[in-house]
Amino acid sequence: MATEEVRQEILKTLDEGVVEYEEDQVKEAAQRALDEGVNAYDAVMNGLAAGMEKVGNLYDQQEYFVPELLMCADALYIGLDILKPHITVEDLGDKPKGQVVIGTVQGDVHDIGKNIIKLMFEVAGFTVHDLGRDVPLEQFVEEQLRTDSEIVALSAMMTTTMMGMKKVIEMIRERNPNVAIMLGGAPVTKDTADLFGADGYAETAGNAVQEAIKMISQLRQMQA
Amino acid sequence: MTEMTPKERITKLFKKEPIDTMPIFSGQGMVTVQAIEKMGIRFAQVHTSAKYLARSAMVTAEMFDFDAVIIPYDLCNIPEALGRGVSLYDETEGILYPTVPHKWDKIEDVQIPEDFLTKGRLPMIDEAFQKLKAESEDGKFAVGSYVLGPFTMAGQVYELDLLLKGLRKDRERVLAFLGQMTDLVIKAAKHYEALGADYISIREMGSGSDLLSPRMWKDMIKPNLVRIFETLSCPTVNHICGSTDLIIEMMNECGADAISVDHKNTTAESRKKLGDDVLLFGDFDPYGLLVQGDVSNVEPVIKKCIDDGVDAVWPGCDLWPDVKKENVDAYVQTIRTYGKQASPAVGRI
After folding, report:
1. Which CATH code of 2.40.10.10, 3.40.50.300, 3.40.630.30, 3.40.50.280 fits the domain covering A99-211?
2. On the CB side of B56, how many CA atoms lie within 13 Å of its CA?
């Protein structure tokens, strides 16, 4: 078991490694966390996710842009790959978790926002069923039914494909009215999400990060 | 007042010479379902037939009294000619634009065939272009076209996340790749110029400051756009959608005849920054206004664009084909009447 001093040092190194997109630093710190006996979930939430929270703020302040976000996400993934196998059911306890079906709707091959949101769900302990991009609409319905997922997250980066979301929502509601549906992507507004009958939305890739980070922040507050 | 032909109106606008009223045109696709339905075809069919492509542009322009026809409608024709394939969604219900199914995931794999202009659907688009030119000889319509900018084109043929990360992690190779894309864009744009395009928009859509920092834009996007606009001799437009407030002055320094922005730009502020001598086009949301919005919203939005100082009211993106006819009629009518007043860069006869 690590001392509090070592724990804090490792968490700080993970946090800074994500912010500075230093993949090697994150890799080493994640391994050190395991070697020193730091709880893996603690390292993910208070190291990696805390770093990503700062990244979200830097994006919001226009210090970071999408290239930096993607590199930070890569650094986070490296740490997550090492730490995640060591997270136990007991670690997650009664914290929010579940299953998410995620994908970019048919006609849209932009998947950056979707991939970042996917990462955030994974960090938060959700099981993610990623359908990829350019996904035929009925496939969302089939996958939700197959996995009994609580959330379906749909992404569209173009106005021209956004209408597909409405159809998916209608199809899912018809088969299973209790599913929470999240929409994301540049053309999606709160009005559109309301009009389509969705439960939540993120306006842009950046906002999607913010929304996901808010989810993680809430999770961390609940944990504290 | 002498009434001009649409082509005269647009030609003079680009020369910043006095015109009779503001022309109704854009640098993006402007086909509508009303035209498609009138022709008795489906949307997916317009992308593969010179006859349908030309006819649908012409029928739309005639139906709504536009001043220009513009083709093609999809952004995949050049990637397809480079061997990246195309998904046309011809079996799918509703309207979906084609997409590129197979992007390169290694820069070293990128191959640009010398004869790419003869590949895929590009010869078909040439034929459609020739039809439109022939039918517009009397100045009935200006004939416009567009080519994606080098960065946006790169994102169409190479995985976008790799491209974006490469800007930071693999700078020299990505710069060389963008140079290669710039050569490609120049070759395609010169080709449309040779076919008689009355204007060409270079759509560097994915380079706004939602994605890239202004510093990165100056360093890696601007030099390529400068090179393109130096090469073209027909009227040109530098179009970027998304956040452009932070780069609007640099956009102007690229050397295009006009700048086009979308509704995320604070146009009144941009006009102040640019002064009154620069042609500025924009900036309404075509989906929100012409598809979703109530017809009563159209006139105030279009008037605001003009009041904010645009020289032509351009949609920020392609018209989503499923427009409400009454909304497009209101958009055209408002420009025809309210656009009779001089705009900052262009007087009236």
Report:
1. 3.40.50.280
2. 28
